[in-house]
Amino acid sequence: MLTWAIIALVIALIAGALGFTGVAAAAGTVAKILFGLFLAIAIILFLMSLFAVA
């Protein structure tokens, strides 16, 4: 999921540099959403591993 967020970010940066502002905004939004999902899942898994009973 983090890979897809990075890919969307790169697409947004390239589109913004070339002047495609609509595509850049959409790709930036997708990158933010994917990164947020990745972060939430990573935190949940981290907390689950802390409280796991061995």
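Above is the first protein from milestone M3; the second protein from the same milestone is given next.
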Amino acid sequence: MVMGLEEGMQFWASLAVVLAFFGSVFSYFVLRPLYEAIQDLRLTLKDLRDDMKKSEERRHVLEVRLAEVDQSTRSAHHRLDDHINKEG
């Protein structure tokens, strides 16, 4: 059962068409959803990084405000102590 050159080329051409078909089906049903999921994950991670950066900036602002309130409270206590000591 020896194939001729033309039959062999037809076999390989048919095999190439079948493999190309299955490759495109695999790409459409497997690779495309994976790629979309990876893109969604990438966007989610970017959003998380942005949220973390904003949170860090807000935390820093709150730390500065807390330090200002602490200093103001110390100053007020110092003034009250001075006032009490003058009257006392």
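Note on the second protein: The radius of gyration is 37 Å.
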